[in-house]
């Protein structure tokens, strides 16, 4: 402004008017240029703002899409985790069931092994019992053989005893008449002598002693057998019978 005042002082009125117009024109042009420049600047800034807003919208939309995609991925991951958890849970349950089955089978195998051991012990016991029964059967067979060997002697002894009784009866018939003062029947006396004359002695004592020895031996063996049965078999047989 100070420069303009100096210039105005040195000019005439027409010149002043011209100068004023020139200055005003310059000022107007300058103002228009400034406004135009400001407008262009504002326009450029507005366009830049619009461009930035558009970019921001695009970025926001991309961000929303990414968020949506992330949510979808999280949902899929949750479903996969849930599915995997259920699968793992089901697999774990199946493994536990199989382990339980294996444990039960192992217990059954142990029980079978114990049963096999018990059966083997029973088998050995039965074999020993069978051996003892076989020995007992052999002893009984020996006793049977001994009895069969003395049975004829027993029959002979019975026959001799019957002959003795017959002889005593015959003697009784001969002696009774004499005791009562009568004479014996000669015919009966003759028959008795003829009947028993060939036998000088009846050998009853010898046969009885021989048979008694056999009988004592048989009794000893029978007692041994009964003791053996009492000691070893009666309780076991009673258990098996129950």
Describe this structure in words.
- This protein has about 240 residues and is mainly α.
- The protein folds into 2 domains: about 110 residues; about 120 residues.
- Helix content is about 90%, strand content about 0%.
- The protein has 5 helices and no strands.
- Helix 2 packs across helix 3 and helix 2 runs antiparallel to helix 4.
- It is rod-shaped and about 230 Å long.
- The two termini are about 145 Å apart.
Please indicate the count of domains.
2
Main β-sheet description:
none
Order of helices and strands: HHHHH
Strand percent estimate? under 5%
Radius of gyration: 74 Å
Distance between the termini: 144 Å
Q: What ranges have pLDDT less than 50 throughout 5 or more consecutive residues?
A: 4-9, 198-202
Can you give keywords for this protein?
single chain, mainly alpha, 242 residues
Explain the layout of strands and helices.
Layout: H1 2-9, H2 13-179, H3 186-196, H4 204-232, H5 234-241
Helix pairs in contact: 2-3, 2-4
Overview in brief:
The chain has 242 residues and is mainly alpha-helical. It contains five helices and no strands.
């Amino acid at each position: 402004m100070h420069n303009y005042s100096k210039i105005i002082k040195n000019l005439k009125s027409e010149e002043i008017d011209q100068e004023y117009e020139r200055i005003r024109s310059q000022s107007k042009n300058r103002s228009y240029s400034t406004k135009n420049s400001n407008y262009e600047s504002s326009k450029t800034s507005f366009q830049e703002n619009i461009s930035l807003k558009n970019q921001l919208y695009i970025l926001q939309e991309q961000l929303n899409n990414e968020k949506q995609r992330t949510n979808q991925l999280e949902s899929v991951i949750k479903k996969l985790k849930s599915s995997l958890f259920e699968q793992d849970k089901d697999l774990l349950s199946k493994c536990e069931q199989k382990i339980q089955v294996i444990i039960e089978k192992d217990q059954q195998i142990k029980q079978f092994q114990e049963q096999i051991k018990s059966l083997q012990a029973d088998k050995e016991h039965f074999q020993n019992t069978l051996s003892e029964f076989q020995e007992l059967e052999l002893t009984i067979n020996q006793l049977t053989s001994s009895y069969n060997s003395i049975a004829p002697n027993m029959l002979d002894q019975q026959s001799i005893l019957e002959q003795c009784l017959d002889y005593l009866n015959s003697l009784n018939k001969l002696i009774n008449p004499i005791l009562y003062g009568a004479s014996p029947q000669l015919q009966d006396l003759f028959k008795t002598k003829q009947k028993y004359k060939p036998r000088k002695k009846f050998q009853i004592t010898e046969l009885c002693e021989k048979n008694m020895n056999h009988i004592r031996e048989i009794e000893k063996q029978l007692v041994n057998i009964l003791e053996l049965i009492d000691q070893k078999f009666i309780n076991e047989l009673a258990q098996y019978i129950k």
